[in-house]
Design brief:
Elements lengths: L1 E3 L2 H13 L4 E6 L5 H13 L2 E6 L9 H5 L5 H10 L4 E3 L3 H4 L17 H5 L3 H16 L3 E5 L3 H13 L5 E5 L19 H6 L2 H14 L4 H15 L3 E9 L12 H5 L1 E9 L2 E8 L3
Parallel strand pairs: 1-4, 2-3, 2-5, 3-4, 5-6
Antiparallel strand pairs: 7-8, 8-9
Helix pairs in contact: 7-8, 10-11
The chain binds adenosine-5'-triphosphate, pantoate and beta-alanine.
């Protein structure tokens, strides 16, 4: 496995793959890798001749200084896992490689931003679409893989690739979960024993909401029940618990058609202490 730290070395590595007619996929991460990331690598391994992973904690997407400062870092272990998963190369840029002095361009999608994490984490989505655009240009892949756990992020990246003609297939990989259905996340490492027990409540509520909607219960009613259940279980704050379309994140309400309700997703973000967890689930599974 080749480790690349500069965009110059990256360009010559990618050039050598292209010269041989080899297709490559990219898996972008912020490190502290778990089985969710490795599912993206597995998907990329299946579709491509070569796979490159990136590890870069992007300061521009953190709307909260403490969150950035406490973001888990475990690079040696990450490299071991990537090698064992059959990744060909890892790009490990320093901040200056991505944002040189004087850097002043933001990539911002005008649609699908004013809701969910776009609304509750000011600047976050622009930080993501900017860094992802840079990493897509630098790694120049045939395919790029993102987790559906971060569903709004996935839709925004698809839109960037389409709007900017980046000529890359943006592929969404289903969420990998623990045995108790907690969605894997690097931030789970920060949960204490008590918080870890409470965390699967998010999935429990999402799947109950899906069942209730399928049985014909009203949207407003089940969302209110779900919000109260999450707070009573021990979460301190719910940023959102909403039903939205999978295509464009349109809000689904009691006035939406039955078909719209059943083809939507339930999205949740909630806090325990200073840890914010997110999840989402399709209503018809
Ligand atoms: N449980 C999961 N299943 C599938 N993909 C995942 C999962 N968790 C993260 N990913 C995907 O891995 C990629 C890198 O994510 P990232 O490095 O931010 O990890 P993370 O676990 O989402 O961390 P965070 O704590 O920041 O949410 C993203 O495309 C993300 O959607
Ligand atoms: C896509 C990403 C690597 C961009 O920093 C990040 O938002 C993430 O890990 O989901
Ligand atoms: N996985 C999304 C990255 C973030 O929360 O900043």
């Amino acid at each position: 496995m080749i480790i690349v730290k500069s965009k110059r070395d990256l360009k010559s590595l990618i050039g050598s793959w292209k010269a041989k007619g080899e297709e490559h996929g990219v898996v972008m991460t912020m490190g502290a890798l778990h089985e969710g990331h490795l599912a993206l690598v597995d998907a990329a391994n299946k579709d491509n001749d070569r796979v490159i992973a990136t590890i870069f904690i992007n300061p521009r997407q953190f709307d909260n200084k403490a969150d950035l400062e406490t973001y888990p870092i475990d690079t040696n272990e990450d490299l071991r896992k990537l090698k064992a998963s059959g990744v060909d190369a890892v790009y490990l840029p320093q901040v200056g490689e991505i944002y040189p002095v004087g850097y002043s361009t933001t990539v911002s999608v005008a649609d699908m931003q004013d809701c969910l994490c776009g609304a509750t984490r000011p600047g976050h989505m622009d930080g993501v679409t900017t860094v992802v655009s840079k990493l897509l240009i630098q790694t120049n892949p045939d395919r790029a893989y993102y987790g559906q756990k971060d569903f709004q992020q996935f839709l925004l990246i698809q839109r960037v690739a389409r709007d900017l003609d980046l000529m890359v297939d943006v592929i969404g990989v289903p969420t990998i979960r623990e045995e108790d259905n907690l969605a894997l996340s690097s931030r789970n490492r920060r949960l204490n024993t008590e918080q870890r027990k409470i965390a699967p409540t998010l999935f429990k509520v999402e799947s109950a909401i899906a069942d209730l909607l399928i049985q014909g219960e009203a949207v407003d009613h089940v969302l209110e029940w779900g919000r109260n259940y999450i707070l009573e279980a021990g979460f301190e704050k719910v940023d959102y618990l909403e039903l939205r379309s999978e295509e464009n994140l349109t809000l689904i309400t009691d006035s939406s058609s039955k078909e719209e309700r059943l083809s939507s997703r339930v999205f949740v973000a909630a806090w325990m202490g200073n840890i914010r967890l997110i999840d989402n689930l399709p209503i018809s599974r």
